[in-house]
Amino acid sequence: MNEFLNRKLVIDTHCHFFNLDHIPLYAFLERVNLNFAKIASLFIDLNKLLKEYRKFIVYFESEVQSNIQMVCEEMTAACENAPQLTGKAKILTPLVMDFEKAQKHETLNNQMTRLQNSIHAKSAYLEANDIRIFPFVGIDLRRFNKIKAENVDIRIRSLISDYVDDFDTWCGRRENLDLNDGDIIGIKLYPPLGFDPYPDEPNNTIRERYLAVYKGFMALGLPLTVHCQKESYKLVENKIKNKFTTPKNWEKILGTDGLSNLRLNLAHFGGEDQVLLTLNWTGDDHYENDPEPITYDSINPGSWTWTIIKLLKKHENTFSDISAFNFKDRKAVFSLGWLLCLDRSGEFDELGDYRLEDKLLWGSDYPMILSNFNTYDEMMKGFVSAMDIGNLSYENYETPREKYGENLPNQADLIEKLTEKNPKKFLFGL
Predict the structure, then answer these.
(1) Residue 31: in which H helix or E strand, if any?
(2) CA–CA dist 47, 234 (Å, integer)
(3) What is the per-residue pLDDT for 285?
(4) What is the average pLDDT value for the chain, to the nearest integer?
């Protein structure tokens, strides 16, 4: 095994190094939510708008090599500013987007080759700073639409062979975790690009092929990260996009014979809006006129986050990163802490044997965080604070400490689990 993986680590399971060479401009603007109100402000205060998005825009204008060093420097500074993370080696797993089928903007091959070449060009810097970078290759499942199920493994091998020196050697090194910077270690699927991961069509031939693809990933030991949040690049209308992106698709896929143990990261945990939606509170609707504390009442079973929790509790190899979580949203942070406490107290035990705190992953979603946070350090501080469950509070709501006393998740343990222990299970099966 690579000795690097035996060290104390901080692992970012969700970040990006792409730029505008890789992403269509209108998709970029859609993702930053440059809506009509903001466009109108161009005529009112252009400088204010540019200041708000300056760092985000500059990132997408910059060369990949420059962005790699910037993110690594910011991550290093963030870890040094957090006592629980100081002095640890670091791993980043940048996720590549496969825009080729959706928009023919740039070939996947060009994007992957540029990324790997950029990582290799920074190898001396990465080595000197105890950092490793292992990409996930993005794949649009429509690449398999005309491939017979029995030939899917050949197609997977062909796709990956473009980015490894020798496929069989890569498989051996990957299995033995003898990894080098730039090695592919996983697959990224982004259904909002326009594909349904569990299509419902008359003869189900496409679904059969996609299920064979997932089994092919499993056979190679490749973890799979899938976008699982309503906010996304918008290349199809919202109704279709949400149909493709909902975690209910993965409920069906994991329920298929042979796929229960798929190593899967349902990225974003549904997003903070769905975390908020998961909890119902007594007195929440008349807080202004009622001095009584607002207390936890029940679960809203219709939220995406609740569907994800059910999958995390039931299936051993399911995980969910909390990348792009807005830690400035105090109620969302409070709700996340409550979910962890409810699960720890046994409230969700009927769903399965696994603890939620053993299934969540740290991820930044850099540079997408730059609309809420100025730096990696600012976001990391928000994460560290959010893991201090005993000190979470929000307005007149009952706190986890008031409910559970000292029987709360420990901050240092949670941080270690989300930044090291859980990511190592997801990425490497350790």
Answers:
(1) helix 25-31
(2) 26
(3) 63
(4) 90
Question: Can you state the angle between helices 304-314 and 330-344, rounded to 10 degrees?
Answer: 30
**Most distant pair of Cα atoms in the chain: their distance:** 68
Q: Check: CB of residue 275 under 8 Å from CB of residue 394.
A: no
Read off the pLDDT of residues 272-331 as tens digits, 9 standing for 90 and up: 999 999 999 987 665 555 567 899 999 999 999 999 999 999 999 999 999 999 999 999
| Alpha-carbon distances of 31 from 265, 304, 370, rounded to whole Å | 21, 20, 12
Contact 13, 362 (CB under 8 A): yes
What tokens does 52 get? Answer: 């708000």
Q: Which domain holds residue 77?
A: 3-428
CATH of the domain at 290: 3.20.20.140
Q: Which of 179, 186, 187, 181 is nearest to 119 (CA)?
A: 181
DSSP structure string for 276-329:
HHHEEEETGGGGGG--SPBEEEEE-TTSHHHHHHHHHHH-TTEEEE-TT--TT-
For 365-416, write each residue's pLDDT tens digit: 999 888 789 999 999 999 999 999 999 999 999 999 999 998 899 999 999 9
Among 250, 235, 265, 243, smallest CA distance to 99 is for 235
Residue 39: name the closest of 28, 27, 50, 23 by CA. 50
Prediction pTM value: 0.93
pLDDT at residue 35, rounded to an integer: 47
Q: Under a CB-based contact definition with an 8 Å cutoff, are residues 72 and 131 in contact? A: yes
Q: What share of the chain is helix, strand, coil (3-state, %, to 5)?
A: 50, 15, 35
Structure token digits, residue 342: 């409810």
Report CA 131 to chain centroid distance, whole Å: 20
- The contacts of residue 350 (CB under 8 Å, 6+ apart) are none
Whole-angstrom distance, CA of residue 141 vs CA of residue 1:
32
* Domain total of the chain: 1
Structure tokens at 365: 């979603």
Residue 397 has what DSSP assignment? B
